[in-house]
Amino acid sequence: MSASPPEMNEALDKPTREQIKFKFCNECSNMLYPKEDRQTHQLMFACSTCQYSEKASSSCVYRNNLDTSIGETAGVTQDVGSDPTLPRSNKQCPHCKETEAVFFQSQQRSAETGMRLFYVCCSCGNIFK
Q: Is the pTM of this model over 0.85?
């Protein structure tokens, strides 16, 4: 059951997608489930309790949108300041003005990011560039 191609919105020139909603039976108020009408080969929504069914307005039953963006400091906690294996620097913390910090490279791996260093203050745990 694949989704139909998205329609184009003239004003924004971006694809618009129909929001997928739960459907409920008009007779008994139970949830409707996708089902194929084998005679007409059409997608229907049918009630599992009574005999009610209705034709689907779209061929899309389920859409899984994945957000693939991750933060540059994903997984970094303030405790990394106490990690003896990380390299240390004497860069001044803008928050508490201490001069000891550990540093590491950005966790985001993309061409436009480049090599960006982040510092974590050993005193207050502040993460800064």
A: no
What does residue 81 show for φ and ψ, rounded to 5 degrees? -65, -25
* CB within 8 Å of 72: residues ≥ 6 apart: 106, 107, 108, 113, 116, 118
- Look at the block and give the residue holding tokens 């007779």: 27
Q: Which one-letter amino acid corresponds to residue 96?
A: C
Rounded Cα gap, residues 92 and 98, in angstroms:
6
Q: For residue 64, is pLDDT > 90?
A: no
72: tokens are 């540059």
Nearest C-alpha neighbor of 54 from the set 35, 28, 29? 35
- Give the model confidence (pLDDT) of 86-109 as tens digits: 899 999 999 999 999 998 877 666
Rounded Cα distance, 122 and 34, in Å: 56
Closest C-alpha to 58, from 47, 48, 39, 45: 45
The full DSSP string for 16-62 is E-PPP---B-TTT-PBEEEEEETTTTEEEEEESSSS-EEE-SSS---
